[in-house]
Amino acid sequence: MKPIFFGAKSDAATRMMTACMAVTEAGVYRGPHYYSHRPMIRVQLDLGQLENWPSYLIPDFTDRLLALLPGLEGHGCSLGRRGGFVKRLREGTWLGHVVEHVALELQSMAGSPATRGKTRSVKGKPGVYNVMFAYDDEHVGLMAGRVAVELVASLLPQDLQGVTGLDRIWKLDGEYQFERRLADLKRLVRRNSLGPTTRALVDEARRRDIPVTRLDDRSLIQLGQGRYQQKIRASITGRTGLIATDTAGNKSLTKKLLDESGIPVPRGVAVRTAEDAVRQGLRLGFPLVTKPLDGNHGRGVTVGIMDEDQLRFGFAAAQAEAKCRDVLVERHFAGNDHRILVVDGRVIAVAERVPAQVVGNGVSNIRQLVAKVNQDPRRGDGHEKVMTRIKIDHLVEEFIGRAGLTPDSVPPAGQLVPLRATANLSTGGTAIDRTNEIHPDNAEIARRAAMIIGLDVAGVDFVCPDIGCSVLETGGGVIEVNAAPGLRMHIDPSEGPPRDVARPIIEMLFPAGRPSRIPIIAITGTNGKSTVARMTKHVLRYTGCTVGLTSTSGVYINDVLVHAGDATGPRSARMILRDPTVDVALLETARGGLLREGLAFDSADIGAVLNVAPDHLGLKGIETLEDLANVKSLIVETVRRRGTSILNADDPLTAKMAHRAGGRVIWFSLAGSDTSPMLRDHIDSGGRAVVREAGEDGGVIILYDEARREQIIKVGDIPATLLGMAEFNVANALAAIAICIAHEVPILTIRSALAQFRSTYEQNPGRLNVHDAHGYRVIVDYAHNAAGLTALGAVVRGLGRYHKRTIGVISIPGDRRDDDIREMGRIAGSIFDLLFFREDPGTRGRERGQIMGLLQEGALQFGHPPELIHMIAGEQEATAAALAAGEQGDLIVITPTEVEKCWRQVTEYQPGNLLHFPQAPQIAAE
After folding, report:
1. What does CATH list as the number for 769-908?
2. Residues 880, 908 contacting (CB under 8 angstroms)
3. Where in the numbering of this chain does the ATP-grasp domain appear (predicted)?
4. Is residue 342 within 8 Å of 248, Cβ to Cβ?
5. CATH homologous superfamily for 336-403+416-496?
6. Whole-model pTM?
7. Segment 394-422, tens digit of pLDDT
8. How far apart are CA 747 and CA 752, in angstroms?
């Protein structure tokens, strides 16, 4: 989450001095997160002085707030009943809680209802609150949060109204412009909301547990994940052919194809000039219709043309809307206008469309009657509601002029005044459901018309005197076949029952038995995530599936790097879930992304928590190991009911997650089943566990499943474990095996794959990568915290008997606590003979040299000789210095930040040649 809410820039001290309330952070949780499994907006609010001002102490605050937002009366809040929140207001609640409810109510008032929220105090920061509330559209939610803060501040006494973190407060002559801001919010809702057609399809998909992802700010939607995804834009689907769409857009070609297939269509011809229109119209005979050859939504259509003047007007209106300048002049079918919806070759719904009209009252003119009709709350602008507001334009004026009327005419009481000849809903028409009345002949004609054009979803415009009688007897037929038909006339007709037209479209895209989700495997933990993910990917590749992997080194599709850099957050996960080639998503999931944005998915099929160790404490409100465990437990909390949670039985904080874990639990353990009564009971009751048991070269890995014991592989047969010496890779192998068992990979496949997994740069970059040259050995390992360095130290000590000296190049990110940095130095001092402490150019807020100084303090506290400690700023420079200091028989361990650059530097290094590193400094003892 980015600091400061809406673009204002001021330091914290200034905010505290000049304001009573400050917005210090804001952001969007797009998936399950630390505080809730629902997507939410988070606003961090520092109340400052207002911490001492609960709502009941602020004069007239509650009454003035309710006058502006009467809907707050319906909020149940924690009391769970209507009026609960108002009771809290009158008894006294803090303003962060008030902002939460105001933001929810503002969204509802703007037409984007949201009902869930929570406000929590920030640990260790009195007066600071995380205000969280649900949203439908994140842009609307963020704006609602801002307006909520503005509104609450405006109701405070004058001397308490200050707010920072906002670029401005909308005031005019000293008064807060609430109505103006609410209107802004409503406009944003209208601009961002899905139309009725797309909304119906999205809602149906969600009812079927199909993942929904909005891909743009309009109506492009991805349904499903990975290889199973389908895309829609309104009622156009990924199956809608371009040729079919183009054909439907060419009305002359459509009519030709239908006519040649025996479908009744009106005779007509395409023209480009008014003279041609008149000449062809006289040949065809009145009444006539003019329409753009490539138009849609009834724009530019004139029907019921009875003379040359009307024909010229109709031609001009049509050509103004025609992209290709061609106008279709055709015979007018007499009868009522119907829209027949055909999906996948089946007639799904029928609606009779009635043109916009008003009924006279003998007092009001036509313009006033239209205004009254437009007051119907079901009418809105464009496609935002089930009906569209009627607009009086030149087409309306021309049409009513045929009857000798103008917009200022006053029709007698009871007189029906049609305003248009066309019956499109987009011009204010209404719809009557006729699904149960259509004659089988008419349904078959419409069905065949859609299939002849080739549309999977088609709106067939059908004109006939009576839809219940066959047009083969009454006359009439198909006048258009439309791609991307609107669904709202069927979803919510003006008369008759609504039809569930979204269901057959979603069923066509996802027929019974076809999945919409790819398996999601999410892995978290303080250490080992990358190696476990890469081991698992290596095994899954043996099954022949396409694996999408996110990791600290990038996003991979199988073995192809498609995006370099740290890719352990939700953005990278979404990249995998959107890739149409991926069969399985394997997602390394770090703490940072969980806290910043939440998960990129609503649920996982397999979730694994490897361990919880001190790292990143003191950041984003995570102060203790228990806090960190609560963050990481989100991975198993969101496992699907039929999924599997993988947990480390040897880690106490991870073991405690079992009661919150979803699905079935598989434990893994280095210590073996005999050391843990909990694990023994689990195995005895038929539960699954993957454990290491005693044996040569590190032991053997055993699977327990339903009281069955099966040996999977000897530890020594997994090259990455260095014959069991790299015990942390034994633990990583246990976790990877448990994941693969949960994914139903055959044991023989697991055994064969792990026997080929080595801790090389190519297979596992930055994790125990070994390079032997120049008479000494170099290990590159991304040990970036105390637990990771301790585990690496065990390997170094095990290898120590083969080497003369051990040399370490050590650092730690600057956003760790001072004690964590000193601990890293103490551990390094206990492992290595010669130390090079370094720090990156980006010290994450610390002064230059401070990180190295704290590392040195820790090493000296352990008792490491000061003359054998060197401090060098810069990763490349420190690496070059250590390589230059290496002698025959030494072991050099480098813990890099930029793994790829470091490995290249190591492999390209030549003794005595520093040409690659021209700025490498002299090694200076501190």
Report:
1. 3.90.190.20
2. no
3. 255-510
4. no
5. ATP-grasp fold, B domain (3.30.470.20)
6. 0.84
7. 888 888 888 889 999 999 998 999 888 77
8. 9
